[in-house]
Amino acid sequence: MPERYEYPATEFDEPKKTAAAGKGRGFYFAALMALAAFVAIIDHVSKKFIVHHLPTGRTKTIIPGLLRISHVLNTGAAFSFLADTASPDLVLKGLIFFSLAAVVIVGILLIRSCNSISLTSIALALILGGAIGNLYDRVVYHYVIDFIEVKIINYHWPDFNIADSAITIGACLLMIEIFRSQPEGDGTSA
Q1: What's the CA gap between 78 and 162, in Å, rounded?
Q2: How many other C-beta atoms are found inside a 10 Å radius of the C-beta of residue 186?
Q3: Which of 85, 91, 111, 173 is spaced 20 to 30 Å from 63 by Cα?
């Protein structure tokens, strides 16, 4: 009878319970939660700065032809998707529900991967902080404040904020981790 195949261990597998691993795990979890909190706080502070220093709909050029600071109220999803719908209350409730679900799911994944500081755990912390930042706006203001506007030649990127940037960077780090070659041998990840 052939031997049973053992799947290689990943960061999401339950770690072996040891006293030393438990202490490190707590430190790593605290550091990753601090990173998520830092992202959410910086996002909130930057949005408050924009609200108090730039009227809605106005822009300030930082790098001509490339970067402007704007003050946009996004009632839709990413890139203002669904912003002009016939039922904005339904869209708002759906976006709040989706954001809350994302925070819970990413939080659980972060808890399961906090055995060390890794590319995956940093990516999840960035995504969690960004999701919390935008969720706060949706719950409190019923829209998200976007203020970074990028234009390259004739391409105008939709306005975004620090939370969006953190989510995008986190997603890119996860993609790098997915496509990065894994070491062969003992089945543990680097």
Answers
A1: 13
A2: 7
A3: 173
